[in-house]
Amino acid sequence: MNTIESVTQTLKSKFGDAVKATETPTGNRLVVDIDGAKVKDVSKEIMSLGARYMVSIGYDNISRDNTLGLIHTYAFDKEQFALMLRMSAPADNPVLDSITPDTPNAGWSEREYQDLLGFKFQGHPKPKKLVTADDWPDGIYPLRKDVPHNLVPPAAEDVAYQLDEAPPGTTTIPIGPFHSSLHEPNHWALYVDGETIKGCDYRGFMTHRGIEKLCQTQLSYNEIPFVAERICGICGSVHACCYAQAVEAATGLVIPKRAEFIRTIMLEIERLHSHLLWLGVAGHLIGFDTVFMQAWRVREQIMWFCEKLTGNRKTYGMIIIGGVRRDITPEIRSELETICKNLEKEITTIHKAVAGDTAIHKRTKGVGYISKEDTIKWSLVGPVARARGVDIDARKDHPYASYGEVKFDVPVVDSCDVWATVLVRILEMYEAIKIIRQCLQKMPEGPILLEVPEALPAFKHMVMMVEAPRGEATHYVITGEENRPERWRVRAPTYPNLQGVPSMLMDNQFADFPIILGSIDPCFSCTDRVAVVDVRTGRKSLVGKRELEELSRKYKK
Amino acid sequence: MWLTSKIKQVLLVLKPGVVTLKYPFVPRPVPDTFRGAPYWDHTKCVGCGGCANHCPARTIMVRDICQEIRVMMYDGSRCTYCGRCADVCPENAITMTNKYELATDDKYDITETMELFMLTCQRCGRCYEMETKNAIDRMDLRGYRYDNIEARTVIRKTTDQFEPKVFQETAQFKRPEKL
Amino acid sequence: MDIVYSFINVLVFILCAPLYDGIMRKITARVQSRQGPPVVQPYYDILKLLGKNTVNSADNWSFKLAPVAAFASIIAVVFLVPFAFKQNFASRYADIITVVYLLTLGGVSVLLGALSSKNTFAMIGASREMVTMIMVEPVLAMTLILGAVKFKSLALQSTMYSVTSFGYSASIIAMMVVYLLALQAFVGKQPFDISEAEIEILEGPFIEYSGPNLALFKFYMMMKQMFYAFLFIAVFIPFAETGYYIVDIVIQLAEMLGVFILIALIGSTNPRLRIDQAVKYYAVLIFISICAVGLSVKGF
């Protein structure tokens, strides 16, 4: 059993001077400052202690000590704490060792900071461009502070992403950037032999909206929750809540109890409708549109309830730093209870229908297999991991809001295929209803919003995990001076899960591609949030865009 | 097995019946708490600019065109209807209406402009000054930047025809500074 | 003068095929708790497509020829079938081989169009379509051969309506079950809309088609559906022959409606199968249908 102390001790004794300092900002967070040269060994040691890699955060520290900072974060799920491994590299030669060979999930994070901050990672197995556009000029690193947030560099016409070489004997099927099984723009090149998938390459990040940069340079603390909600159309409250909790934890704000309960209810409502939405989409992806329509019909009553409670079907705008904006009145409460009752009945019906349908089993059982070991190795999260027998859930492992005060189970299935993810999600809906009921009962009276002080302390680091319907969302906040975060890093659950998809696809049928990709409930806009301004994918779309702009200008006048 | 499950499914889906709304033909009422298009009550507004300060989408612009007249402009084309302005308004001059059918081909249909008569200070007479050095900048939140509607023009320019010169211009683009 | 009946056939099929499609859409919508489009929507779709420009995405003649050939072949089939128990001019000169041949020609035209469009998804769609054709065509052939074995003749009228003269036998019942199980594959609906699977291969063979060409393909598909529905009622439930031509037409159309309701219900309560799963399924069907023909040879 690791504790914060034991981990500190182990690291200090093993690496001596390389561990420069340690710090515990709150009871369940450990910050370890290390010498950048030793990162590979330290990371390996932490992983061998049973940690789960979460995400890396790069930040620009040039104005203060002429370095670029990098933080790897790890979660100790059973021991309920998180570790932030902090290091820096000189800005003129930011070279660090890559930890990707040992923790494959760090691959994207490292590639991201290669693009955005100009880091160089030695020994990275695939140091390709990840985030910035193909025609983004070399030497401009958008997350550095000297690059303005509204910079638009010239478009180049003769660049294209070089896909990986196809394995011999295969043909390439391009899926995307726009394809009906994707719902959002991103590109997959599938290498198939007949109808069997033998490999794939992914080029995503086509919908960068520059959210992180925008919020770090333009918005103030309490405006960011509204942008955070718009990272994702489905799990909006998750991102807003995660961000707000990170800032609150970093600056030591304690929000009213009632607000915590309302946040929990919002998160569970979101889980309910997200899982119903996913169930529908999964039905659609295997060509079963009736499941799609019926699941969404059931979902609709939640949406209408949300409209009544928050004023909108989605993008609730409920959560801001210091609490929530709207209270749950007695009428709303009794309506929520009725809806819970209806939903439970409807979900049971759907559950029975889906579980008894052999045709659905045919399409989902044994499809998208990935072993438990690989799941842990790739640090997959959420229902995807729980469907592979890995019992992780941020609600239980890192309790936040009022999850510590309610009782619920974490359904874990271990058949390791798409069917297991269907089952896990359906079972989670019952738990969500259970949690909402308990919250309504236990919710204390009192204020729902805390007056946030004028100035929040600067340069506090905090990582916060929230269990989104899709998995664990991780936000990292470094508080700043100008009433806005110095750095805000969002890692949506799709970010790690998408990296595990190639292993799930391997040796499956091409016809199963939509449902395998769908089984992680991918949200590409969540994944794509960072970076700057816009992305041009190729010459053709550029011409189209210019024409569009001309047209729109013509009509504007 | 297969057949019975199918028959069961058909029977199941008969129960709820048709749930589609005849929406454009039959209007759908929204709850009272709905966050629709914001409405400004010009008789209540004191022109404090709190809404402009807190608007995450920066849709509200405040300009003093002379000593006595303050213009407040709301650009609905980029409003996200979060209702933050209504929350922070000290005079409750802003209410979120239940209007949601706001699609238009002329963005001025959803742009609102208010001209407020601001009283000159009896003591010094200089509380309200022109443009960037006005009172709103003094009372606003720390870190607030209020220029984004204007900055759009610069972004447009660079997107269209890029040259190193314009790049420089963008990089050095100076926003109206705070006091 | 019985060539008139042929033209009436074509007229009835052309007029009714989109209607049945509309009814199927409506039933699907009801199963999905939706309002659904009006039943005449397919007519609007066809008319709208006919009014659009053609985009010739592949620069070869086979691409343009394929929709016309497909449509022509299905019209030819309809032209010669003895609809409403009426032998017509063409069905006297045609036999079941002609019907199977012409139906296959339609399928081949779809393949031709898909292959000449040189689109990756069309290619996958074409290969799936080809597999489906190879696997379900025998079932169709066996269905017709069954009557031919009983009658010892290949003539259309007698083989199609063999049940009217011989009644039900074990082989006919077996074949009826097989036909019902293969029905979704014949008409290309779930769970066997594999070659068009819009989720993964985006309508497969038709992906590059637009405007009037697509309209022809769509019409071809609707007519094909209607033909298979007709074939079912003609071969397996050819009752209520009143002798009055108009009444017979109405009765057969009503019976077809029942078949379409069945298709829509099965289609809307099943996910799409994968091609490898479907092939196994078809193989069983072919086996049973061959057994049924064997039984009928033995006189059962």
From the helix content, strand content and strand pairing of chain B, which structural class follows? alpha+beta
Q: Per CATH, what is the topology of the largest domain in chain B?
A: Alpha-Beta Plaits
Question: Which strand order spans the largest sheet of chain A, edge to edge or round the barrel?
Answer: 1-2-5-4-3
Under CATH, the topology of the largest domain in chain A can be stated as: Cytochrome-c3 Hydrogenase, chain B
CATH class of the largest domain in chain A equals: Mainly Alpha
- The DSSP helix count of chain A reads 19
Helix content of chain A: 40-55%
- Placed side by side, the strands forming the largest sheet of chain B appear as 2-3-5
Q: Looking at the structure, what is the overall shape of chain B?
A: elongated
State the share of residues found in helices of chain B, binned by percent.
25-40%
**CA-based gyration radius of chain A:** 23 Å
| CATH architecture label name of the largest domain in chain B | 2-Layer Sandwich
Distance between the termini of chain B: 77 Å
First-last Cα distance of chain A: 69 Å
Structural class of chain A: alpha+beta
Main β-sheet description of chain B: 3 strands, antiparallel
What is the average of the pLDDT values of chain B? 70
Mean pLDDT of chain A: 83
Biggest pleated-sheet summary of chain A:
5 strands, mixed
Count of structural domains of chain A: 2
Overview of the structural elements:
The complex is a heterotrimer of chains A (557), B (179) and C (300). Chain A is α+β, with helices and mostly antiparallel strands and 557 residues long. Chain A has 2 domains: 127 residues, 2-Layer Sandwich (Beta Polymerase, domain 2); 317 residues, Cytochrome-c3 Hydrogenase, chain B, CATH 1.10.645.10. Chain A has 19 helices and 15 strands. The longest helix of chain A has 29 residues. Chain B folds into 2 domains: 106 residues, Alpha-Beta Plaits (2-Layer Sandwich); 28 residues, no CATH class. The radius of gyration of chain B is 24 Å and the shape is elongated. In chain B, the strands form 2 sheets. A 3-stranded antiparallel β-sheet of chain B has the order 2-3-5. A two-stranded antiparallel ribbon of chain B has the order 1-4. The N and C termini of chain B lie far apart (77 Å). Chain B is built from 6 helices and 5 strands. Chain B is of the alpha+beta class. The C terminus of chain B is likely disordered. Chain C is an all-alpha fold. Chain C has one domain. In chain C, α6 packs parallel to α12 and α9 packs antiparallel against α12. The longest helix of chain C is centred in the middle third of the chain and has 32 residues. The mean pLDDT of chain C is 84. Classes of the chains: A alpha+beta (557), B alpha+beta (179), C mainly alpha (300). Chains in contact: A-B, A-C, B-C. The interface between A and B is large, with 43 and 43 residues.
